[in-house]
C-alpha cells in the first residue's frame, strides 16, 4: 500500500515533495496539501553509492556521504521518542486505510458514479479529524467542469445551530471541489443562526484532501473547530455534479464506534379485517467487530394514528457479528375505523447501546378499501385516472425536480393538485455551484461585504388559469395564470406554502388555506380558489435553487362529482410532512439513549398489543 521509496509517482510525492501538490499522482489519486517526508531517507543512499565519479572526488563524496549517514543515523536514534505517532490515515486518495474504521452505507443514489456516495465515515486521532466518502466511481473527476463533495459537521450535535441540512445543524462544512486535474478543500464555519442560509459560511482554513478512483478523504485539524465535542459530533455527506446529479447521506455518522440503522418499508396500502402487517423494520448493526459483542435493540418507539392497535413481531432483537441484522414486522388492527379512513404508523426510534437512526417512510394505509373520491391524505391511488405522465423536450438533470406525473381536479368547491417527481420531493441541495470560469459564476458571487441570502430549497409551483376565456393573467407555459400556489421544501420537509393572485403582478393572497400531504416522491393538496372550475387549466413547475426546472404542458382541471367528495372526508392526519427520514434524527438519538438509561428502572412490559398515542 505505501509505495514509499519506490520509483512510482506516488513515492515521489510522499518522499521528496514536502509541499503542495495539485494534479494527478501516478494516475491513481490526486493530492493536495502538505505531504510529510517519510520516504526521504530510503531512496537517497542507494542512488549516491552508484554514482560513477572521478577517483579524486570519490573520497570527498564518501566522506560527505558518511557524515550525512551519521547525521541521519543520529536523527533516527533520537527522533522516534519525540516524533508524533504515525498517522492512521494517509491522505493519498486511496481508501484502503479506512477498512477497519466503521462506516455507514445509507445514501441516496446519484446517476453519476463520481458523486454516488456508497460509504462514509470519520476517525478522530489525537486532534485530527479524518473524513472519507467512498463513491461508485472516481471522485471529483469531472472531465469538463467541477464536482463538489461536502462533509457537514454538526460538532455540537444540535440541529438548531449552524447551517441546516438533512436534519443536521452543520457548524462547519468541509467543502471539496475538483475535476480531472485538481482537487482543493477548505473548512467553512457557520454562525449559530445560519438556518438554511449557505451564504453565512466563512472560510476557516484550508484542508488537506485527496481524491482517488473510489472516493475522497480529508484531514481537518480539530483546533480549527473550537466547539467540536467528539461525543456529540454528527457527520453528513453531500455530493453534487453542479449540473443536477447529487447524492446525500441518510444517516449521520458519529464517533460512537458503531451504529444501529432501522430501515423501514411499507408493506401495504390497505389494512383489512383482522390483523394486517403494515411496516417492516430491518435492524442493522454497523461496526460490530468483536465476536463476543451483543448489541440489543429494544423499546421500539412508534407514533400511530390515535386508536390504532398495533403489535410488533418481536419486542427486542440481539445483534452479533455473525448475525448483524434482523427484521421486525408491525401489524395493525382497525376495529373502530370506517372503510376508507386512513391510518398511519411511524417508527421514531429504539433504544440501544449505539446511536439509532431511522431511515425510510412511515406506513400509511386505507382501512378496508381506497375511497372513491379525491382526498388529501398522502395516498395517491385516488389520482390513478386523474393524472397524466409528463414528457420532457429536454432531459431534466436533477431528478428531485423532474416531474413524472401530475394532475389537477375540482369538485366545484376545492381545487386539488398532485405532482410526483423522479427523485426526492423537496430534497433540496447545498446551494453551491462551481463552473469553469469561461462559463460564468453559476450560483452567482455575492457583492463584496453584502452576502446575499442563498438557500437550497426546491420549489414547486402550481399556476392556475381559472378562466381561459379572459385574456388576463401571467403568461406562463401557455396559460394566462390567475393564481399561483408555491410550495418550498428541503430534506423532504415542506418549509413554506404561499398563494399568490395575479393583477398586473403577483401579490400574496393571505386567505385560502392550503391542505397538503406528501410522501417521499409525491404530494397532493387542495385549496379554495374563487372561480376555478370546469374549463380551468393548470401548469406545474418544479425548480431547484440553481434554476434547473421542469415545466409541464397545460393540463385541464378535471371535474369530479362533489357528491362523492363530501367535505367531511378531508381529515387531517397526524403525521409530519418530514417522511423521507422518518424522524428528526437528533430526537431519535436522544430518545434512544434516554430510553436506554431508563430501562433498568422499569418493570418489563407484557408483550401485548398497544394503543397508539
Ligand atoms: Ca488513504
Ligand atoms: Ca450544530
Ligand atoms: Ca389522496
Ligand atoms: Ca419531467
Topology:
Elements: H1 9-16, E1 24-25, E2 29-32, H2 40-49, H3 55-78, E3 117-125, E4 128-135, E5 147-154, E6 163-165, E7 168-170, E8 172-178, E9 183-189, E10 202-212, E11 215-221, E12 234-240, E13 246-248, E14 259-266, E15 270-271, E16 275-286, E17 295-304, E18 309-312, E19 316-319, E20 325-333, E21 342-351, E22 356-360, E23 363-367, E24 387-389, E25 403-410, E26 415-421, E27 458-465, E28 474-476, E29 479-481, E30 483-490, E31 493-502, E32 506-508, E33 515-518, E34 522-527, E35 537-543, E36 549-551, E37 555-556, E38 558-559, H4 585-599, E39 610-611
Parallel strand pairs: 14-22, 15-23, 25-38
Antiparallel strand pairs: 1-2, 2-10, 3-4, 4-11, 5-8, 5-12, 6-7, 8-9, 9-10, 10-11, 12-13, 14-16, 16-20, 17-19, 17-21, 18-20, 18-39, 21-23, 24-25, 25-26, 26-34, 27-30, 27-35, 28-29, 30-31, 31-32, 33-34, 35-36, 35-37
Helix pairs in contact: 2-3
Bound molecules: calcium ion (CA) (4 copies).
Amino acid at each position: 500500500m505505501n509505495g514509499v521509496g519506490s520509483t512510482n509517482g506516488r513515492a515521489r510525492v510522499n518522499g521528496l515533495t514536502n509541499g503542495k501538490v495539485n494534479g494527478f499522482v501516478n494516475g491513481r489519486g490526486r493530492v493536495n496539501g502538505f505531504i510529510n517526508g517519510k520516504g526521504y531517507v530510503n531512496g537517497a543512499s542507494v542512488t549516491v553509492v552508484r554514482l560513477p565519479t572521478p577517483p579524486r572526488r570519490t573520497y570527498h563524496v564518501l566522506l560527505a556521504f558518511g557524515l550525512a549517514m551519521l547525521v541521519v543515523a543520529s536523527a533516527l536514534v533520537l527522533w522516534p521518542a519525540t516524533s508524533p505517532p504515525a498517522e492512521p490515515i494517509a491522505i493519498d486518495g486511496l481508501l484502503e486505510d479506512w477498512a477497519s474504521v466503521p462506516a455507514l452505507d445509507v445514501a441516496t443514489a446519484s446517476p453519476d458514479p463520481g458523486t454516488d456516495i456508497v460509504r462514509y465515515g470519520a476517525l478522530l486521532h489525537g486532534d485530527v479529524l479524518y473524513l472519507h466518502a467512498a463513491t461508485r466511481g472516481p471522485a471529483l473527476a469531472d472531465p469538463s467542469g467541477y464536482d463538489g463533495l461536502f462533509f457537514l459537521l454538526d460538532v455540537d450535535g444540535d440541529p438548531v445551530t449552524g447551517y441546516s441540512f438533512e436534519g443536521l445543524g452543520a457548524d462547519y462544512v468541509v467543502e471539496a471541489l475538483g475535476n480531472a486535474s485538481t482537487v482543493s478543500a477548505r473548512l467553512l464555519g457557520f454562525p449559530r443562526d445560519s438556518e438554511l442560509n449557505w451564504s453565512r459560511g466563512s472560510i476557516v482554513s484550508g484542508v488537506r484532501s485527496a481524491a482517488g478512483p473510489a472516493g475522497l478523504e480529508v484531514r481537518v485539524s480539530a483546533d480549527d473547530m473550537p466547539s467540536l465535542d467528539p461525543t456529540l459530533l454528527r457527520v453528513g455527506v453531500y455530493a453534487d455534479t453542479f449540473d443536477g446529479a447529487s447524492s446525500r447521506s441518510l444517516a449521520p455518522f458519529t464517533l460512537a464506534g458503531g451504529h444501529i440503522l432501522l430501515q423501514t418499508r411499507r408493506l401495504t396500502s390497505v389494512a383489512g379485517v383482522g390483523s394486517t402487517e403494515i411496516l417492516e423494520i430491518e435492524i442493522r448493526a454497523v461496526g460490530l467487530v468483536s465476536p463476543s459483542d451483543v448489541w440489543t435493540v429494544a423499546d421500539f418507539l412508534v407514533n400511530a394514528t390515535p386508536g390504532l392497535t398495533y403489535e410488533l413481531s418481536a419486542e427486542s432483537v440481539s445483534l452479533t457479528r455473525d448475525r448483524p441484522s434482523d427484521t421486525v414486522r408491525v401489524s395493525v388492527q382497525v376495529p373502530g375505523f370506517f372503510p376508507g379512513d386512513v391510518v398511519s404508523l411511524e417508527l421514531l426510534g429504539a433504544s440501544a447501546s449505539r446511536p439509532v437512526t431511522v431511515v425510510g417512510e412511515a406506513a400509511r394505509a386505507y382501512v378496508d378499501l381506497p375511497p372513491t373520491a379525491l382526498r388529501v391524505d398522502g395516498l395517491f391511488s385516488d389520482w390513478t385516472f386523474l393524472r397524466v405522465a409528463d414528457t420532457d423536450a429536454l432531459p431534466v438533470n436533477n431528478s428531485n425536480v423532474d416531474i413524472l406525473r401530475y394532475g389537477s381536479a375540482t369538485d366545484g368547491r376545492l381545487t386539488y393538485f398532485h405532482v410526483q417527481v423522479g427523485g426526492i420531493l423537496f430534497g433540496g441541495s447545498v446551494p453551491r455551484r462551481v463552473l469553469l470560469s469561461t462559463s460564468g459564476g453559476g450560483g452567482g458571487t455575492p457583492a463584496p461585504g453584502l452576502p446575499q441570502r442563498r438557500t437550497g430549497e426546491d420549489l414547486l409551483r402550481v399556476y392556475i388559469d381559472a378562466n381561459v376565456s379572459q385574456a388576463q393573467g401571467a403568461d406562463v407555459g401557455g396559460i394566462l395564470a390567475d393564481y399561483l400556489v408555491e410550495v418550498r421544501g428541503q430534506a423532504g420537509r415542506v418549509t413554506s406554502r404561499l398563494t399568490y393572485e395575479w393583477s398586473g403582478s403577483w401579490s400574496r393572497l393571505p386567505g385560502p388555506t392550503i391542505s397538503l400531504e406528501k410522501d417521499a416522491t409525491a404530494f397532493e393538496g387542495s385549496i379554495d380558489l374563487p372561480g376555478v372550475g370546469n374549463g380551468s387549466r393548470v401548469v406545474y413547475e418544479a425548480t431547484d435553487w440553481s434554476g434547473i426546472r421542469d415545466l409541464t404542458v397545460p393540463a385541464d382541471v378535471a371535474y369530479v362529482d362533489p357528491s362523492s367528495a363530501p367535505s367531511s372526508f378531508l381529515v387531517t392526519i397526524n403525521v409530519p410532512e418530514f417522511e423521507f427520514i422518518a424522524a428528526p434524527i437528533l430526537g431519535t438519538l436522544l430518545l434512544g439513549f434516554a430510553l436506554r438509561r431508563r430501562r433498568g428502572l422499569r418493570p418489563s412490559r407484557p408483550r401485548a398489543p398497544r394503543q397508539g398515542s
